[in-house]
Amino acid sequence: xxxxxxILAIGLVAGTLLSACSEPPELAAYAAxxxxxxxxxxxxxxxxxxxxxPGDQVSWTEAINKRNQGQSEYSRAK
Length: 78
What we know:
Strand content: under 5%
Oligomer: single chain
Order of helices and strands: HHHH
Shape: elongated
């Protein structure tokens, strides 16, 4: 009888651990990427970086480069 409970307990634990592997993919990341619109087209709202104009690829590239430089530990350490 003890052996049956051990096998049952091991089966329940294994089933619980394996059920975590069947998590559905996150769809929010796919919804954010729209292949029909270029990234520099953007949205005209209050969350834009100052100096960036929607639809202007040059100002978008400059804003991205400036942001990347601010996140670089090498340039911040100087």
